[in-house]
Amino acid sequence: MSVEEFLELVLGLPEVTERESFADMTGFRVRGKGFCYLSEAKQSIMVKATREEQAALVADDPDTFSPSWTSGRFAWVEVKLPNVDAGHVAELVIEGWRLSAPKRLAASALEEFSGGDR
């Protein structure tokens, strides 16, 4: 996945705001809560996940996924964008967004993404 494709994906999610962050990274938030960071220079993202998801991703493909930091029940995983297809990145970013979004917003967005079939 390219940086441009990632930006189109993340900025297309409901109520996402973008702002400069630490270490030359761009942060993405939903209602003030961070869920993803982009390093254009490294062509990588850090995305919020569960501890279990972080462990599974790193175990499955350590050349693409690496652990970042962990806090409470959440963990962050670094993803090398050129190594991953767009569908997989979309799943990870949408899940990170869902973990940070208020429950009502997340529920309404899930209906929108699934076409209202749920």
From TrEMBL:
Database matches in InterPro entries: YjbR-like_sf, YjbR/MT2646/Rv2570-like
Pfam families in the cross-refs: YjbR
Keywords: DNA-binding
Domain of life: Bacteria
GO molecular function terms listed in the Swiss-Prot or TrEMBL record: DNA binding
Name of this chain's protein: MmcQ/YjbR family DNA-binding protein
